[in-house]
Amino acid sequence: MKRLGLVLLLGLASCSSKDVVVVYSPHGPDVGKDYEALFEAAYPDIDLRWLDMGSQEVYNRISAERRRPACDVWWGAPSTMFMQAARAGLLGAYTPSWAGAVGPGYKDEDGLWYGMYDTPLAIMFNTRHYTRGQVPHSWDELLDPAWDGLITMRKPLPSGTMRTFIGAMILRAESEDEGIAWLRRLHLATEKYNESPQTLFDHMKRNEDLITVWIMPDAVLQRERNGYPFDFWLPKQTPVLTEAIAIVKGAPHRENAELFYEFATSPEALAHQAAEYAKIPTRTDIDPATLPQWMADQEVDAMAIDWDLFAQKEQAWCDRWEKEVYNAP
After folding, report:
1. Torsion angle, alpha carbons of 181, 183, 186, 187, to 10
2. Please, is 51 exposed, middle or buried when counting C-beta atoms within 10 Å of its C-beta (0-12, 13-18, 19+)?
3. d(CA 105, CA 261)
4. Predicted pLDDT of residue 18
5. CA distance 314 to 211
């Protein structure tokens, strides 16, 4: 969908009494730049100020600013982080116009956050070197000695995606200790941890024999939008995280925060995000005809996860990973 068409569908609105809205997000510069332009075209008297950083970095910053909030909308990150933020009193309640279009697992019971996308984890690879038949088809196949030194990763602790992967690999093991041992073996096979998603993508483009664990939509986005030679394989029992959105408690531009929230989560915007960024909407009222055909065709065998328990355990799991895996002697 062309930008102009999206703006026309969303409609021009009258100016708010405030002239700024601040959004923190890990969605990356493609999404950030696009939605700054789209939102400001629809609301020309509002300046959208965008800050791109990893999910954990967003959480840490919002927490540090809790006495004097600077952010209005937190857009994107696994729902487990929003659960932690809700318990910490960092989020403000808001009931969007589409609240009834998602099930209980996709929203906070007090309206502190709502899920926007279903996001599976996948094994991503460079198509200049591999086909889908040549890469690991299961998580355990990553530990095959043939892949030693050929696995590269996003630095885990700042990344909601990788923190989800750490927790999921622990949950699928017979015990927490066995999960940590599995992650230790993966660490020993990993040639590098990259500081950001963009450095990960660039590293894999230059080094065609590397593979990684990352979110499936980004493999599609980087291929279709930016021309990276990437594809993916979805293992069975893959974690499917929910990426959410929330208004920050004490948002300094609350009225504009609600405008952006509704703008970014409208059916037209979600169809745009599906087509442009491969984001799979959680809403049940989106017309399937407005979504890419591959979304209907793609089969996902989702790992069953108690996300409330996950949110409670995540930090402890990541602390163990840092101490017993990354910094192990």
Report:
1. -100
2. middle
3. 19
4. 54
5. 25
- Neighbouring CB atoms inside 10 A of 14's CB total 6
pLDDT exceeds cutoff 50 at 16: no
pLDDT at 7 over 70: no
Amino acid at 10: L
Kindly report which listed range (27-31, 140-144, 161-165, 266-270) carries the lowest average pLDDT score.
27-31
Q: Both ends of the chain: CA-CA distance in Å?
A: 52
Torsional sign, CA 167, 182, 232, 53? positive
Identify the structural domains of the chain with CATH numbers, from first to last. Answer: 3-118+241-297 (3.40.190.10), 122-239+301-326 (3.40.190.10)
Amino acid identity at 189: A
* Cα separation, 301 vs 122, whole angstroms: 11
Residue 120 phi, psi dihedral angles, 5° rounding: -75, 150
47 backbone dihedrals φ, ψ, rounded to 5° = -95, 115
pLDDT digits (tens, 9 = 90+) for 97-118: 999 999 999 999 999 999 999 9
SS3 state of residue 84: helix
Which residue's entry shows tokens 């009222």? Answer: 285
Instruction: Classify 282 as helix, strand or coil.
Output: coil
Structure tokens at 146: 């043939």
Q: What is the mean pLDDT of the segment spanning 255-260?
A: 98
pTM of the entire structure? Answer: 0.87
Exposed/middle/buried for 79, CB within 10 Å: 0-12, 13-18, 19+?
Answer: buried
On the question of pLDDT at 84 being above 90, the answer is yes
